[in-house]
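INFO  loader      accepted 1 record
INFO  loader      residues=202
INFO  predictor   begin
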Amino acid sequence: MPTYKPLTYDDRKIIEKMCKFGASSQEIADTIDKTYSTIYRELRRCPLGKYSADEAQMDADSKKRDRYGNGINTSKGKWFTYEDRIEIEHMIKEGKTVWEIAEYFDKSDLSVRREIKRCSGEYSAEEAQKDALKAKENQQTAKKLALKTRMESKEKEYKRIIRTCLDINPQADILDVKIATGFPIERVEKYYDEIHKELVKK
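INFO  predictor   done
INFO  writer      dumping tokens
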């Protein structure tokens, strides 16, 4: 009984060869254990009589991206490991195509292309790993900076509102400011003395 799994790049290479020999859609379907309708739809990815495995794979990946978003990682979001990168390096040296590498790792062709672009020249697992670690480090630094910026922004807002309260009522104590602002008591205590001294000096 024909299976209903999506066609792979290897399936498409078989289809391409059989088309060149003039095989019928049913003969192709029987050969790769697919239904006639699956082959019929697959052949329509390319101009009639000019089926190409590469062109069909590009069309399939493009429609997958349209459905799930650019750069979808079909292996549940798992990033390439150093061991994966060693395997990719070997596969590239063996002449494997982007499609074949993507199929092997169950990822999109876009993910593989991005991975290969980590290297300025010929793909190297070591260079790609260094680039990935650097990118991760930069991302963590950016997150820390964003968090620090948000905290500083909140701190300025706390100070501004507490200062406004003390401008209105210089005699207000910490509890008065807490009640007026609704801020946690520890926040008021943190900034109260500093702001009160500034206002007194004025």
